[in-house]
């Protein structure tokens, strides 16, 4: 899978060199490139924003650098990958909410392009133009406000990347997780069996795999009811 991230703060993404995603990049399972939007400016000050038409607070990202960035990255999709149409994702608090299903759908794509805007936003025409190059999705992390899309894209790339076959060493660990089956994860314990007067639930020491599976499922239901009743519908 190929991932391109465009940002005015590329060093936000240095953390993607670490851990499982870092290894996946080294082995070539993930082709992840981070680009500085300013590389597609042509003025002395490498300007990426300007004042909003109609007035108002803050600045708006200019369309020209975005147009050039998307042209180049979408064209590279055309040349290389099996699917010639990239999915172009703009993180936005005004977008659809990102869920595990979103991550699963996006993990099946050949080429994702992430365009990180600042909160005041990107000139609206960029989204229209992007739709002529690929499938455009505006995606939010949830109902709160961040200063820009970078942190949201970090979260999305990690959630998507770990679903690519070979990124997570033991694929079974992907199955028994919060949200994969619509429920929260069951509690986990390790040695010692007694710690600061607290015992591990005895059933986990019983060796009865059927009983353990049943107990874990009950724990999932109980936790989901208590913490996230909205997931039970
Ligand atoms: Cl994707 N962007 C920004 N700026 N704020 C957010 C968000 C995204 N998701 C939640 N809040």
From TrEMBL:
In terms of Pfam families, this protein maps to:
tRNA_m1G_MT
Catalysis performed (reactions): guanosine(37) in tRNA + S-adenosyl-L-methionine = N(1)-methylguanosine(37) in tRNA + S-adenosyl-L-homocysteine + H(+)
**GO function terms (MF aspect):** tRNA (guanine(37)-N1)-methyltransferase activity
Cited Gene3D superfamilies: 3.40.1280.10, tRNA(m1g37)methyltransferase, domain 2
GO biological process: one example: tRNA N1-guanine methylation
What residues does the tRNA methyltransferase TRMD/TRM10-type domain cover? Answer: 1-232
Q: What is its main location?
A: cytoplasm
GO-annotated cellular components: cytosol
Residues at which S-adenosyl-L-methionine binds: 117, 141-146
Q: Which InterPro entries match?
A: Alpha/beta_knot_MTases, tRNA_m1G_MeTrfase_C_sf, tRNA_m1G_MeTrfase_TrmD, tRNA_m1G_MTases_N, tRNA_MeTrfase_TRMD/TRM10
- Quote the subcellular location field of this record: Cytoplasm
* Keyword vocabulary terms for this entry: Cytoplasm, Methyltransferase, S-adenosyl-L-methionine, Transferase, tRNA processing
Q: Which EC number(s) are documented for this chain?
A: 2.1.1.228
Query: Which EC main class describes this enzyme?
Result: transferase
Q: Which residues form a coiled coil?
A: none
Family matches, as SUPFAM superfamilies: alpha/beta knot
**Could you tell me what this protein does?**
Specifically methylates guanosine-37 in various tRNAs.
Q: Which family does it belong to?
A: Belongs to the RNA methyltransferase TrmD family.
User: PANTHER family this protein is in?
Assistant: TRNA (GUANINE-N(1)-)-METHYLTRANSFERASE
Record's subunit section: Homodimer.
This chain belongs to the protein called tRNA (guanine-N(1)-)-methyltransferase
Species assigned in the record: Microbacterium esteraromaticum
């Amino acid at each position: 899978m190929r991932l391109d991230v465009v940002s005015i703060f590329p060093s936000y993404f240095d953390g993607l060199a670490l851990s499982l995603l870092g290894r996946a990049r080294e082995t070539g399972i993930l082709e992840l490139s981070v680009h500085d939007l300013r590389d597609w400016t042509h003025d002395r000050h490498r300007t990426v924003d300007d004042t909003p038409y109609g007035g108002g607070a803050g600045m708006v990202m200019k369309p020209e650098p975005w147009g050039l960035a998307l042209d180049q990255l979408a064209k590279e999709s055309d040349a290389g990958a099996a699917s010639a149409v990239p999915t172009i994702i703009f993180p936005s608090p005004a977008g659809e909410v990102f869920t595990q299903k979103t991550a699963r759908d996006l993990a099946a794509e050949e080429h994702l392009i992430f365009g990180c805007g600042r909160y005041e936003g990107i000139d609206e025409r960029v989204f229209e133009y992007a739709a002529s190059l690929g499938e455009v999705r505006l995606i939010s992390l949830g109902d709160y406000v961040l200063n820009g899309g970078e942190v949201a894209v970090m979260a999305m790339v990690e959630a998507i990347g770990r679903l690519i076959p070979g990124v997570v060493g033991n694929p079974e660990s992907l199955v028994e997780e919060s949200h994969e089956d619509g429920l929260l994860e069951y509690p986990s314990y390790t040695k010692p069996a007694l710690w600061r007067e607290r015992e591990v639930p005895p059933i986990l020491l019983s060796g009865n795999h059927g009983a353990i599976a049943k107990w874990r499922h009950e724990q999932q239901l109980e936790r989901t009811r208590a913490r996230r009743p909205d997931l039970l519908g």
